[in-house]
Amino acid sequence: MQDTLLSSRGVWAQQNQIKHLDPRSWIEPPCVIQASLAPNNVIRIGAFTGIYGGRIGHSHIGRYCSISYGVDIASDQHPIGWLSTSMIQYVEDIHGWESWLRSEMRIEPRLKPKPHFESNSPVIIGNDVWIGQGAFVKSGIKIGDGAVIAAHAVVVNDVEPYTIVAGVPARTIRKRFPDQICDQLMELQWWKYCIHAIPDLDFDDIELCIDTILKHVNDGIITPYTPSVLRTSDL
Q: Which of the following is catalytic: 58, 60, 78, 95?
């Protein structure tokens, strides 16, 4: 059945949501996807990410991300400096309107759309990003590793790594950690690994966590996590 959960593949999502994505899409298990995925969009989602609602368009979402319900990512944009904001200016025969005008109204459409308008540039979301309830992320935005997007924020500019933003439009509130810690985390890139394999992580001591993960990496106890991805062609 098309609405079957894909949990046996390590992806807790509805099969019909994945099946109708652009063939260039992929999903890295394990992850949970409870959002509406825009059909025919290129969507790539990293392992250990939980998406608990909202709508996702063209995007690349990293590992260990947490995305709350009501979030809107990469919705189509419209030109505001052109004659109109309508899609008829850059999408050919949208919804079959031109065909209908020709057959029903005996009007021969002569409009030539300008296809160069980027209405749905992809959103790039790093690893360990938390996007709160009801946030809006404009198409074409880049959100750095470790960033936090507050609930109901409207993100219209890129967000730096480990930065907390909030508001309409979203503005920087503060960094999650001191610069030295942020630099260490960016250098370590702990999201490359499956931290389930580390038994003694003290999560609320960030410096000890960094030291523990680094020791496991240097000692060869953990290696980069490389699962087989799920693609639309697999369904």
A: 78
